[in-house]
Amino acid sequence: KQHVARTSGGQTQRMLLEADQVVYDNDGNSVTALGKVQIYYGGYTLTAAKVTFLRATKRVIAEGDARLTEPGGNVVRAGRIDASENFREGFVDALSVDSTERSHFTAERAERREGNVTVFQNGAYSACQTCVNEPGKPPFWQIKAVKIIHNQQEKTVYYENAKLEFLGVPIAYVPYFQHPDPTVKRKTGLLAPSFLASENLGFGVQQGFFWA
Q: Which residues are CB-neighbours of 101 under 8 A, at least 6 positions away?
């Protein structure tokens, strides 16, 4: 089924919906797609076992191994995704995000704001290859925080009440921390921490500062 959606600028985009079954609930003012649901819209791809369109609030709720691929290539996986009709705003429960730069976010809950800011609650971040290539193994290093804010427009990751962990062991605590996101190649400021292992000195952490 193809649906025409109108953007805020007045332009029209086609939404392609593929599913085993589509149920229209006139009383509940909703449309539910069931079984191998795939939705393509505005460069986004949403797949799930069940997707419900709430017409009154213009929300899209995807449940059952939900997966949202963003136009830039980032992949958001979650048990449940609650987003706006154009997927730019919304929140995700129990999610993980694999970016195209091999960085990895996990969180109990996340909220998408203004199309470029993602707020992770009780989340973790790592650019460790193990997170992406071997998700079943503990990451070599990661940063856990009560709140992680990824501002894609500023290309910066912010942390509140953060802990640096090495092989699952906390080694440092900072109330506030920030660094450029993996898309940034040159920017003055603190770099993401690097970790060392030496037979003579043991394990250690380096916090670099780069002047562009």
A: 127, 181, 182, 183
Going by the DSSP 8-state scheme, the letter that residue 75 receives in this structure is E
Give the DSSP per-residue string, 99-151. Answer: -TTS-EEEEEEEEEETTTEEEEEEEEEE--HHHHH-TTSPPSEEEEEEEEEEE
Question: What CA–CA distance (Å, rounded) separates 22 from 31?
Answer: 7
Residue 151: CB atoms within 10 A of its CB come to 17
| Mean pLDDT across 131-135 | 54
Contact 61, 74 (CB under 8 A): no
Quick one: which of 119, 113, 125 has its CA closest to 193?
125
Both tokens of 135, joined, read: 């998700």
Q: What is the mean pLDDT of the chain?
A: 80
CA 171, 173, 174, 178 torsion: positive or negative? Answer: positive
The region that residue 146 occupies, defined by phi over 0 for left and psi between -120 and 50 for alpha, beta otherwise, is: alpha
Please check whether residue 120 is in contact with residue 148, taking contact to mean a CB–CB distance below 8 angstroms. yes
Query: Which stretch of DSSP H or E encloses residue 132?
Result: helix 129-133
The mean pLDDT of 85-93, rounded to a whole number, is 80
